[in-house]
Amino acid sequence: MTFSVAGKDVIVVGGGRSGTAAAELLRARGARVTLADAASALEAGDRLARLGVTLALGPHESNRFASADLLVLSPGVPANQPAIDAARRAGVPVMGEIELAFRWLAGRVIAITGTKGKSTTTTLAARMLAEAGLDATAGGNLGEALSTQVAASHPDAVHVVEVSSFQLETSDTFHPWIAVLLNLSPDHLDRHASFAEYRAAKGRIFANQTPDDWAVVNADDPGAVDLARGVRGRRFDFGLDASLENGVTVEGPAIVRRQAGAAAPLLPLAAVRLPGRHLLADVLAAAAVGCLAGVPPAAMQRAVEGFRGLEHALEPVREIDGVRFVNDSKATNIASAIRALESFDAGVVTILGGRFKGGRFEDLRDLAAGRVSAVVAIGEAAPLVRAALEDLVPVHDAGSMDAAVRIAFDAARPGGVVLLAPGCSSFDMFRDYAERGRAFKHAVHELARKS
């Protein structure tokens, strides 16, 4: 039966990018829509009101939620809020924005998740498909919400979707043709009750796959391999170190596809313009998607050669007096901070901290020894950073990003690197990781001007 909301009372909870897109889609499909948000005002409020969306701002009302025909949650909204629980007890269906949009897509879905690397892999995979002449669009947790793609979806379209644990936990029928699991380590433990709950949410990417689908898994990551055991989709792995019978890896100077004991070259390693082993692993994951989607090697190479990386992902900012500044504000968990540090050999002054999401800063110690010359601690997690590392390297506190950049520069030496890899979310000091990254870059440019 075709999913329909025509004439139904639907409440969208959360007025951010995804919630706004969901409200607009629901109105276009004939629903009576209320958008509920705890804020006192919404940036898109006037536009939504013109579309006929009712705004319910301020504290959520359980009675209102429990009387709806459907609740649609933005990914930023915890699914266990009392008003949402009351709606469930009243028998109201609850789904996320990704699930809502998926039910109306006509094209196939490639879904990409993991603790680190989702945005890079999603962007590069979509570029590879586009280079091959496919109608491929990237979105989801990255860029435009999936709901914005529904109107233009058609049977030959391919939707390359970055999906977070928050989006997956509220999915039900979401069914990727190709599901990619990049890696798995503790994250978002400020929202998920445990690592087991976070892990289960990630595992939902495979829940509705059949033997006609594909599961692409990082063979180098024990957590990802364990989570993917028993999936119904066909396995097609990637890895830098693992021995693969069927998948994408590196042999000599090339990225290759291994199949039935033979290796076929896909593109030269020299075509990859991204720093760090973890970003190379993301290239392998995108190439694995390309193989399954029928992308010719020449199209893969064109996509990779033209891709210089994403803003805030090991982004070079500039050099001042021999010190390089690198913005990895997307490193919002400990695993990401580790991968960022692995990209440099020595002389690193790293800026760590923000709103803690779980994990252990102590896990940085082995990597920091001999590689990190100083740490600048920022945000709510600064005391945790200090407690974990101050007996190993000098730890300096900074109350702002401007101060952090100045202190890091003073602690650095020519030939060294100042690396913003916070290992935390940004919400104690900034609206999001992008605002944090832009603040870092602005502080660096101001420092250069004054120098």
The CATH architecture classification of the largest domain is 3-Layer(aba) Sandwich
Strand runs, count: 21
Instruction: Return the CATH topology of the largest domain.
Output: UDP-N-acetylmuramoyl-L-alanine:D-glutamate ligase
Uncertain parts: none
- Cα Rg: 23 Å
Proportion of residues in β-strands: 15-25%
Helix segment tally: 16
N-to-C CA distance: 66 Å
User: Any idea of the CATH class of the largest domain?
Assistant: Alpha Beta
CATH superfamily of the largest domain: Mur-like, catalytic domain
Specify the helix fraction band. Answer: 25-40%
User: Residue-averaged pLDDT, rounded?
Assistant: 95
Shape: globular
For the biggest β-sheet, the strand order reads 7-8-6-9-10-11
Structural class designation? alpha/beta
Q: Largest beta sheet, briefly?
A: 6 strands, parallel
Protein described:
Helix content is 32%, strand content 22%. By secondary structure, it is an alpha/beta fold. It has three domains: 9-92, Rossmann fold (3-Layer(aba) Sandwich); 99-305, UDP-N-acetylmuramoyl-L-alanine:D-glutamate ligase; 315-450, Protein-Tyrosine Phosphatase, Chain A (Alpha-Beta Complex). The strands form four sheets. Strands 7-8-6-9-10-11 form a six-stranded parallel beta sheet, covered by helices on one side. Strand 10 (214-217), helix 9 (222-227) and strand 11 (234-235) form a beta-alpha-beta unit. The longest helix is centred in the C-terminal third of the chain and has 18 residues, at 433-450.
